Amino acid sequence: MKKNTIIAVVGLALFALGAARLGSANILHQLRAAWSAVPILIGLSAIRLVLQSAAWKRALRPEGLPPGFTRLAGARLASRGIGYLSVLGPLVAEPMRIKLLDASSDAATAATLVDTGVTWFTSGILGVTSYMCALHVLSGGRRLAPVVMMVALIAAGLILIARPKPLLPMLARTLGSRCPGWIRRGEALELSMREFQTRHPREIRWMFWLGLAAQLLVAAESIAVLHALRIPFHAETILALEAANRLVKIAGGWLPARMGSDETGMAAAFAAFGLPSAAGLALALTRRVRDLLEVLIGLSWMSWTSRTSRGAGASLPDGSCMVPSPALVSN
Are 189 and 51 in contact (CB under 8 A)? Predict the structure, then answer.
């Protein structure tokens, strides 16, 4: 509890520091202008949730797992909310997403991780472009060596995700008898994922395009806010801001809800790109409103389904126990 309090105080201090430097009058002016973009951000987020849930359903369907679309969307929102509020972030969110699927099988785990891998792959593609634009804007097009290095590193990661040959079996053979048990379990899981990629190329293609469209919707949020603030922009600026958004999320991942880091980070990024710092703070705050709404919906859904499951699993009058089937719970 003491540790969480310290972390919360650090986050609030970061936010207070950024607000003090920008001035309350300037911030309020930008927030009033940016408020009109909040419904647009919520709409974009809803469309992104539909696309991501459709991609997840594409991964589960070939494995004979047809959960309802509502369960997939609710599980994604709930796990995302838990990861958002937690210090561990994705390390908590991904296992929770599998658990909330209510289908604890190796096939469900492998299919969900395939969905995650495709999401990372599409995110990496947009990341390559975004980092190139960010470094080009910052360097004025003169120092391209960092651009090449960054692109090479991300491209190497994309190749590792896309390559059909698994990596962990080779590592397990190299370690031999000293190989830890978790690598052995990961080896079996990776083989299942690679087999899915080989057996269902059509599903992978659909998931790729759905994931790429979802990534572009994240960048569209900056367009909506900048338009509401009447700030001129072009495609390179939007992609550069998306690169900054990714870096800020990584840097603030140790803070619950990235408290304070999103606001100060985006204000600094806007200043670095020659844009008003208060506009960066307004963008971060409008996104936070959207994120908190998602957390509320996701956790409310998880609470409701938990109560429903407990009620359905109650004892019958004859003393037997009624356990809900996955098909009923998923709808």
Answer: no
